[in-house]
Amino acid sequence: MKAKPNTRLSSQAMAFVLAGGRGSRLKELTDRRAKPAVYFGGKTRIIDFALSNALNSGIRKMAIATQYKAHSLIRHMQRGWGFFRAERNEYLDILPASQRVDETKWYLGTADAVTQNIDIVDDYKVRYVIILAGDHIYKMDYEVMLQQHVSSGADVTIGCLTVPRMEATAFGVMHVDDQMNITEFLEKPKDPPSIPGDPDNALASMGIYVFNWDLLRDLLIRDAEDSNSSHDFGNDIIPQIVKNGKAVAHKFADSCVTAGLEDEPYWRDVGTIDAFWQANIDLTDFVPKLDLYDNSWPIWTYAEISPPAKFIHDTEGRRGTAISSLVSGDCIVSGSEVRNSLLFTGCRTHSWSTLDHVVALPQVCVNRKVELRNCVIDRGVIIPEGLVVGQDPEEDAKWFRRTEAGIVLITQDMLDMRARKLG
Q1: 23 belongs to an annotated ligand binding site
Q2: 253-294, pLDDT tens digit by residue?
Q3: Which residues form the Nucleotidyl transferase domain (predicted)?
Q4: Does residue 402 come out as left (phi exceeding 0), alpha (psi in the -120 to 50 range) or beta?
Q5: 187 among the known binding-site residues?
Q6: Annotated binding-site residue? 138
Q7: Is 107 among the annotated ligand-binding positions?
């Protein structure tokens, strides 16, 4: 079956999003939600980036495999991504680990999550499958990667970041020849191989893979029968193709979507408190590294119906202001000062309070005379009057989770325990 001329390959592809991970390094932020469901950027969720990339690339068939504490993720999908229409040959399926294959088996690995849903992918009648992680922040046109995959005749095409060579020790690294054919896949090597002609940089895997479905289907079935396999793409499927087939690297820089303001390809794994805080705070820069205001490549999400943000009080020392900050709908900045911060939907900040480099998730209420600096505040937290965070490291660490970099995570449970101990 040949591709139809003048047809975007994305119309013959589906995106299979792996969104089952807990994201334990985000600590209490993932106590009640999976990492892909964590809020990001003022009004979106992390998973919205992978899904928006697929939609904007022309892909209209998607499946999302969920496992760990999936309720908030599934609810977000239903509310924000329910516009796919079967009569237009569009599909978005949510695939919780539901013991479809064996009553004792959940998803055993990333590859097994696809294996257990082979019949569903078959029903899509697609030629190509793009495997995506649901927990990274970036903008990418998958059509460009599909075009390379087909023109190169690859068995798998792997999306790769160009990173300084010695920073690649934390990634899966591709050793490639001058035609971008992968000759070796190395997991977290101590001495990463460089890119041909670029001795200072290496190619690190993004966890994005393009396969022809008929080939991947056969590989998955054989892998499921291998009792020694961990049923994982990075550990099992990819090394097998590198050894016995044709694996090709795709540079993220070739398909990264920019609006003209970004000065370098932007990709972030926001898997730690520090990285999550930094990526959000980056958005407050005068020229942010990631442009969310590019209407040609929108980040789709659940668009809540909310009133506009409101700023009130205008007396010295009690002025509602926000400088270099993102303030979402239904926020009220009342007689308080907000700087280099993000207020997600429905936040309230009250008189004589200051927020500096704060990421406040939805429905946070900051009461009067509060001073917050370098914080992440979980959804729905009520900050008590007079609380000071970000000035005394020992006091912060006594009540809250404080990282080595000095970022403080505040949850309601932490505040409740503090209130009980203080009487």
Answers
A1: no
A2: 999 999 877 878 999 999 999 999 999 999 999 999 999 999
A3: 15-284
A4: beta
A5: yes
A6: no
A7: yes
